[in-house]
Design a protein that fits this description.
single chain, 239 residues, alpha/beta, TIM Barrel, 17% strand, globular, PLP-binding_barrel
Length: 239
Amino acid sequence: MINVKDNLNKVKAQIQQACQQSGRLTPLAELSKQSSPVSLLAVSKTKPTSLVEQAYLAGQHDFGENYLQEAVEKIAELANLPEIVWHFIGPIQSNKTKQIASNFSWVHSVDREKIALRLNQHLTDDNCHDTPLNICLQVNISNEESKSGISIEQVFSLAKIVDSCDKLTLRGLMAVPEKNAPKACYEQMQQLFTQLKKQYPSVDTLSLGMSNDLDNAVAHGSTMVRIGTAIFGARENKI
């Protein structure tokens, strides 16, 4: 039996420890109940709404989904939870942008001008949305052919396009480094994030780090880690 509340507490403790070890949260700050500089995004893909609701009732309000059809059904079922925030973190097909724009508050995986413009246009056409969509640009920091994302060289040109869209808010960067990625990958993401923050006041998010690289990501400036299995248990395989 999965105890979601206990698992959440363990993950949060791990995040706090990583912050302390990297000097991002001093013991004095912890004693004064200072909030963690790193937030937790609970990755709920393939998980039933019952587990998501357990996490919500335990105080977790931000959830990440990769599969659109599954996510839309889940979002509808949990519409009664007033403070829940949905993040789309999977690859984006251009014909899915309307549903993504309509259902999510955050999109972490924008990697093409076409996607940004389509998201913005859907929100412009839909008068029901009066709050901008929060956008992170996905960077393929390890240059893996199997992964989505832009190159380092493309970051600032795409950032300019997103920033020009009146229905989008540029919040930062997201990356999924390869397994056992060298320290240089994390250093590059940290440098990119720092540069982007200097240029755009709205940028405050570096979505970097999962269960296997949480400590390394936190040490290199991550502000949001994406954790699934450690909270909800092993994932079911998608067919």
